[in-house]
Amino acid sequence: MKVAIIGTGYVGLVTGTVFSECGHEVTCIDNNEDKIKVLQSGKMPIFEPGLDEMVARNVEAGRLKFVTDLAQPVEESPVVFIAVGTPPTPSGKADLSYIEQVARQIARHVNEYKVIVEKSTVPVQTGEKVKMTIEKTVGDGMAFDVVSNPEFLREGSALEDALNPDRIVIGTTSERARGVMKELYGNFKCPIIMTDIKSAEIIKHAANSFLAMKISYINAVANVCERAGANVMEVAEGMGLDRRIGKNFLYAGIGYGGSCFPKDVDAFERISTELGYEFNLLREVQSINKQQRKIFLRKVEQELWIVKGKTIGVLGLAFKPNTDDMREAPAVEMIQELQAQGARIKAYDPEAMSNAREMLNDVEYCTDAYEVARDADCLLLMTEWDEFKNMDMERIRDAMAHPTLMDARNVFDPQEMIRLGMEYRSIGR
Ligand code: UDX
Ligand code: UDX
């Protein structure tokens, strides 16, 4: 089936590539000419494990291409995905202006029945507005349906998540559109949830907010554990083996970041308020998340006593491992706060340093963790890359001016660190 995907960011690029891998003929469209040129030249605008090979394979097979103009692909494809960004506005609401613009552009090229799919994460009732926008422009007698089909992929494991999802959610009551979507997802073996468009929109916000809530919950528990002298990792294991709770997303740390959880929890809380329900639980989820970053900063300050003039090494900048994404990465706030207090910052991340350069000033970027450690008064482990889990800790200790390790992700064993003679602090242990 021919498929047009508008917006070639993390979501659009991965979705389009996976559909081409399934045998569909996919055109990815983006109004950012530089991004399309990069993709046409065979390079990736983002780092995502395995993506470059899968893109190359499908481009080679003639099933995947990249263009800037949506006219022809929209006219030729029975299914058109909208995967443009929905960044938060200063008030916290999702900015839906790109969705509106794209809906109008699509409408001008509806030449036969089309299924227009909302892939971007949007507040409930956006689908209705997209439908209304298209209706105003589309030619007389031109049929179309709007479907909500949210994406659940995680950066860093996006291909695996998109190829083997836990479920596929299809929101539309139109039988015709359901038929097209079933054909599109014909190769997938997971459960397919058929629902209405508003329920599908809420599934995405409710699922992401629930996962964020799990993280804030375990972070709050970690703070109690720390005060009581308990170990949050063992508490999480004991909780998680109860199948009703589940062990995933119970890792205490420095709080969630990234382009989805912070934005989606905020947007879900706001749309609930607009609809007349105060979802105070979600306010608390956000507040715990913000507090978690401050608590870690206070620990670093306590450990250093005077921050001014100290050399602080930062291991990991991305908001999570296996990605170069720095959106809402806790390392940014941490580095800026410590710089404001007069610290010198050295840092290393396996993939995120070029994005970090655009967001941070006066950071000395290093070629590996050992260079970061050299003459540092303190090391902060901010992202749990495997590369850091496997470091030679004796070499790290010996390179430092003062062997102090602040582990924001509970990567290391406290007893082992003490045995090595490191000052070591982590979360909830
Ligand atoms: C974004 C949202 O953040 C997420 O909530 C949503 O589910 C999907 O879109 P992501 O793919 O990570 O996720 O965003 P981003 O990497 O910013 O990509 C969006 C792309 O859309 C960009 O490449 C941008 O150039 C493109 N775009 C934007 C268009 O092609 N046309 C527009 O009018 C606006
Ligand atoms: C998330 C959702 O998981 C995905 O379904 C959705 O489509 C997009 O948003 P992503 O943001 O890429 O994916 O990464 P995820 O692995 O969910 O992690 C989000 C944040 O939570 C990261 O900052 C991570 O470090 C943090 N996290 C995750 C924890 O602090 N503890 C955990 O137990 C799990």
Describe this protein's structure.
With 429 residues, this protein is an alpha/beta fold. The chain folds into two domains: 194 residues, Rossmann fold (3-Layer(aba) Sandwich), CATH 3.40.50; 232 residues, NAD(P)-binding Rossmann-like Domain (Rossmann fold, 3-Layer(aba) Sandwich), CATH 3.40.50.720. It contains 18 helices and 14 strands. The strands form three sheets. It has a six-stranded parallel beta sheet with strand order 3-2-1-4-5-6, sandwiched between helices. Helix 11 runs antiparallel to helix 12. The model has no long low-confidence stretch (mean pLDDT 96). One uridine-5'-diphosphate-xylopyranose (UDX) binds next to helix 1 and helix 5.
CATH topology type of the largest domain: Rossmann fold
Give me the CATH superfamily of the largest domain: NAD(P)-binding Rossmann-like Domain
> What compounds sit in this structure?
uridine-5'-diphosphate-xylopyranose
Q: Within the largest sheet, what's the order of strands?
A: 3-2-1-4-5-6
How much strand?
Answer: 5-15%
First-last Cα distance: 53 Å
Structural class by SSE content: alpha/beta
Overall pLDDT level = 96
User: Using only CA atoms, what is the Rg?
Assistant: 23 Å
**Total domain modules:** 2
Shape descriptor reads: globular
Sheet having the most strands: 6 strands, parallel
Q: State the total count of DSSP E strands.
A: 14
